[in-house]
Amino acid sequence: MSKPVSRISSEIDFNLEGKQVGFLRLPHSVHRSAYGWIPIPVACIKNGEGPTVLLMAGNHGDEYEGQIGHGVLLRTLEASDVEGRIIFLTSANFPAAMAGMRTSPIDEGNLNRSFPGDANGGVTAQIAWYIEHVLLPQCDYVFDLHSGGSSLMYLPSALCRRNSDPNKMQQSLEILKLMGAPAAYVADSPQGDDRTLTAAAGRQGVVHFGSELGGGGTLTPAALRVAIDGIRRALKHLGILKASVSVAPAEPTQLLQVRGADYFVYAPDSGLFEPLVELGETVEAGQAAGRIHFHDTPWREPSVAYFKREGIALCKRMMCRTERGDCLFHLGTPFEHSLNKDA
Length: 343
Hints:
6 helices; CATH 2.40.50.100
């Protein structure tokens, strides 16, 4: 059986030298536009031989740090700064980015739960297929910048997946430190697992780095510095930016890890969420994480959610209105090279 061919076409040639900008054209026939297409912004800077990196943001449309940061890099970098190739996909799930939503308003698709995608599927599935089967095979590295979106707030963090090879793990930790976020963490099994870009990169042999740079539908100068200066430092370290390109020094970062399900706290009931812990605080196993208040029956005592283990609060729910099963917190613990999941 022949391999499927993407219906998405590119206005730019990824093998052409120099700096190009344009759109990926995703055919989309609707009532208002019978022969229309969705314009997904794409760009490429290529100069000679060297590694290729995909700078991706807008995987979730309500996460803004990467969309703005990668845009700044696109406008300020020229081909003369580069040794190799940088591909920019700054609003990957473009319909979601235009709507300022985590998921696409067209098909409710969550791009980071849609890999490996479908070349003949819905809009989000087609985008996922193009990224995994057209863009990633051209790349050595991918930086996929996220934040907590509308519903969560993170202590600004860089992240990567755990690697069983100690040398490769050490190389990844160096990149995390260079990104210069207040925290960096290593995840054993990211949320969404084999449907994420992290998993897609692994299937294509591409080294993946990510971030959780804040959230709450906001943007802070500190988070944006990581998205711009941190990426510049990482690209220079990887040899994709020339040695002559100046970069700001990295701020210290705290190395953490996120491992099993006990790192996460979920709402036990629906109601109004009262957090009892702030981001960055150290908590103990059995400590109360938050209360869920019942505004429909205010005479009831609130339900209490508890931390299952000790750790540092990396992520907190932003929205007060909460339903049973919503994530309230997740923790990080000091990084250990051990593969023992009880660590």
